[in-house]
Fibronectin type-III domain-containing protein (Glaciihabitans arcticus), 578 residues
Amino acid sequence: MIKDPPQRRSPMLRVSAIGVALTTVIAGILVGASPAMAATTVLAPTGLTTTAGVVGSGQTYSALAVKDQTGTQDTWAKYVELSPSGSAAYSGYRTYALPSTVTPSSVTGISVAVNYKGPSTANQTWTWALYNWNTAAWTTVGTNATAPSWGSWKALTFASPTSTSGLVSSTGAIRVRVAANNTSDSANLDYEAVTVTSGTAPPADSTAPSVPAGLTVSGTPTSSSVSLAWAASTDNVGVTGYQVFQNGGTTPVATVTNTTATISGLAASTAFSFTIKARDAAGNSSAASSAVTATTAAGTTPPAGYTLPLANDQFDYQLGGIYTPSSGVDIVSRDRTAVPVAGKYNVCYVNLMQTQPDAPDESVTNPNYGTTQWWKNNHSNLLLKNSAGQVIVDVDWNEAIFDVRTAANRAALLEIQKPWILACKNAANGGFQAIEPDNLDSDLRSTGLITPAQNKEYLKLVIPYTHSVGLAIAQKNASDAYGTTGKTFVNTVSPAQGFDFAIAEECERYNECPAYSAYGNLLYEIEYTDENPNVTRNGVTKTVYQWACFDRGAIHSIILRDRDVVPSGTSGYVYQNC
């Protein structure tokens, strides 16, 4: 699972001394406004009014228009800090404005979406409410009840009240208030948006986009990839993406939202032809563009002795407990202490860059578990420590971080983990075929002590060893760290090596899927039920998972799981695939 860590920043350090009452109302913007007859319209704030407490120095409501903070990110200009002042707890509201295409009387629903980081309700409750223009009262819609105390950024969604009477003014204004119940702490908001549902549904769209024109090969093909570019299509509502087809096939090899694409995983010294089709949100596709042909360059022979998964094979993620996969599943990921599934492509989860958390059901003496206490007892020198000698811990998961800053530490750590990787190969039922190393981005949780380059130096040891014992290796998350170099960054061997495929959690939710383009169709996506809100594109509303399936379901294996990935038959279990 994604392990972005919380980072508790002192909330009172960067607050402007601007008094108890602060009023900031400035003309705002509209995000993703739907067409005039669309059922939903997403609004960004047009102003911020603080009635008690203060906001951070230099911060404005405009930062709330984009959800761009995840994990422990802390970019001051991209969020708003809400703080008490003296004896006054923070209270204030954001104003939203309906576009002219939506009348106040047509509104049937108002929901609120927030990206929050701050205290839990055990310390301080933050309550969101909608203003009723008829009664001058506030209608509560939600609180920070599901958020951890200063954990990672947490997406909160508050459903619409049953009745929206009075919640929109006669001029189309909506107010959303957030207020703290005490002065003990502050909170940060990276994003706040209102989704308005109107009473008139959009008409059915049966008009296909225009045919993409001007398809060309951009740059020089490599031994395994070809880059393409073309002119944008037009549509009566709006083009949502483009599909790339190869050698006259009917299944797209890539789906993109812009007018460029790089097709990877191609054979060397081979000619390929490509065409493009445009799509809109209703699923209408244009006719195919004119074809373009490109020949890949000569390549080198990749390392032999291991097997890759098949593109778009159905995938199951069983890290929270094992169970018999359904008959259609071809690929199963399980913890390295579990038994692989006979007759399937098995992926072995290895917590490579952090310890396993201490837990009542896990041994602190058995090295196979690799708990924090086991590492403290046996290899304390390999745990990252601050200047006071305290072990640095990923507090979201209670896992200590390995210290890979020196060549000596990296070599010692590999010797301990080699038996774990080899055990994956030699497990029962024919063993695992690949490993899934987690926490490749542990540098993000190292309080600045580890650099991404130092983590990569360790992987330059791990990847060749993994290949040498006959296992493939996946890039697990860490979309920002590798970009297009993930398959070839291990330049200490010849030919260069790297990850063989990718396992990405929530790449649709956080718009990270294009970062894995180097792996072509060997991308296996997991979206989670607790981060699966509705998203509206050009008047069409789908969940995050449904959009992922719409965009890439024909070429990638995409699944929806419950956050705890519990076994089938357990309360809370969810598994869907497309």
